Amino acid sequence: MNKEIKIIPLCGIFFLGFIAWFFPPQSIDSNSWHTLVVFLCTIIGIVLNVMPIGAVGLLGVTVFALTAAAGAQSSKQAIMDALSGFDSYLIWLIVVAFFIAKGFIKTGFGKRIALIMVKFFGKKTLGLVYGLSIADLILAPATPSNTARCGGVIYPIANALSQSFKSLPNDPSRKKMGTYLITSIGNINDITAAMFITAYAANPLIVKLAEGFGVKLSWIGWFVAAVGPAIISLILIPIVLYFIIKPEIKNTPEAKEFAESELKKLGPVSRDEKVMAFTFIGVLVLWIFGKQLGIHSTTTALIGLSSLIISGVLTWDDIKGEKAAWDTLVWFSALLMMATFLNKLGFTQWFGNTIGEELKFMASVNWIIILAVLTMIYTYTHYFFASGTAQVAALYSVFLGVGINLGIPAYPLALLLGFTSSLYCSLTQYTHARGPILFGSGFVTTKEWWSAGFAINLLNQAIFLIAGLAWWKIIGLY
After folding, report:
1. Measured on CA atoms in the order 47, 145, 116, 187, is the torsion positive or negative?
2. pLDDT reported for residue 58
3. Rounded to an integer, what distance in angstroms lies between the CA atom of residue 353 and that of residue 84?
4. How many whole angstroms separate alpha carbon 425 and alpha carbon 386?
5. What integer pLDDT is reported at residue 34 of this predicted model?
6. pLDDT in tens, 311-357
7. Which residue in 10, 53, 118, 233 has the fewest CB atoms around it within 10 Å?
């Protein structure tokens, strides 16, 4: 028996889906209901981890095609509907960005950036966190897996730094430095993930879902909207956590020696690192100015990847072996396809109107207050999810539709819900794939993680609501 498959939960999902299929509410079209059933079963399969995530996505696509859930009149149309998610340029943008991110890790360029930041900012413990934060920020635009960015590049350096100062995991000495460093890099990673479409796998899905409500965001448009409140969070989070966790070691003059020693082991900058740096800068420039040059953001990503392959920095075996990218292509396409059909078939509007009717008593309340309430509900619902992207797929359009029906301007609502979809990732150690890596290090207890995550999330909500609304007003988004 395949140990990757949890037979009992999988059968339970099929059984519940089969029962629900035949009992659509009278007020909803049967095709909308059938699409919703397949969609929710796919989401539940991802949350319960009944199979590898790519396999769950493929199974969802198969069931969608087999049942003609969207009402296709022929088997050919049904399979075309089911596979329609694979032709999204946003999905290919994020997948290609995964491949580019591989270059950072393979060449050691990402590690070198982080060590250089430690070298220049690491005289104090607080400075170490700022140094690692800047490294995360530099890597974020071309690293859509914030798990790989934080867990694969930043965490190993933070872990090594902690232990070099005799701050050891699963030991009282962890409070000397390790608890502070590990907690900080996780919460900072949420901010860098919110800053770029290509910094978090859920962001392109948010962009696509928001388009259905008339909100259109380019790569540079997303960044400009995020940068105002995000910079404030990046500055304040290390300081606030410093006072919450209170690391025992305040000064770290040895950190510079540690970084220099590790840089020496890396040796001089290699030819591949130089190519990686040049390609990265070129991709960023085209993402920023490509629209004026008539070059699409996904085309830019393809140019970057092709350059890395032609130059030999990446091989085709590297591309084939990047499992996270291919997983993302499959399950992301499945969720995007079903979410798009839910919108086309009218379910999203129907559900939004239904919830809006229940909340119409709030219509006389200032829209900013409604925005704050909806954002808080959306945020704390995340305690019941083990995947940030799964929550986006299941709830983003619903909350966006409800808010618009209650009179909230579309752009501020779409942006705040979108950024919140990154900011909630550190609430618990199970709500994001990065969590088990950091929590498993042994430096942070459950109580410390939850309390710090809740406090920082409140801070971020306040910053993005107050400073965000002010910034979006200045740049003319509403």
Report:
1. negative
2. 92
3. 27
4. 9
5. 92
6. 999 999 999 888 878 887 888 788 888 878 887 888 777 777 777 67
7. 10
Higher pLDDT, 305 or 441: 305
pTM above 0.85, yes or no: no
Sign of the C-alpha dihedral computed for residues 109, 113, 119 and 125 taken in this order: negative
pLDDT, one tens digit per residue, over 399-426 is: 998 888 888 999 999 999 999 999 988 8
State the average pLDDT over residues 454-471.
95
Query: How far apart are the two ends of the chain, measured CA to CA in Å?
Result: 56
Helix (H) or strand (E) holding 16: helix 7-21
Q: Which are the contacts of 449, defined by CB distance < 8 A and separation ≥ 6?
A: 183, 426, 428, 429, 439
Residue 158 CA to chain centroid, in angstroms? 21
Secondary structure (H, E, C), 241-295 = HHHHHCCCCCECCHHHHHHHHHHHHHCCCCHHHHHHHHHHHHHHHHHHHHHHHCC
Residue 331 CA from chain centroid, whole number: 14
Cβ neighbours of residue 60 under 8 Å, at least 6 residues apart? 38, 39, 41, 42, 45, 331, 334, 335, 338
Contacts of 33 (CB under 8 A, 6+ apart): 21, 24, 25, 347
- C-beta separation of 51 from 4 below 8 A: yes
Query: SS3 of 65, please?
Result: helix
Q: Confidence band (pLDDT; 50, 70, 90) for 164?
A: confident
CA gyration radius, the chain: 23
Half-sphere exposure of 453 (CA within 13 A, CB side): 28
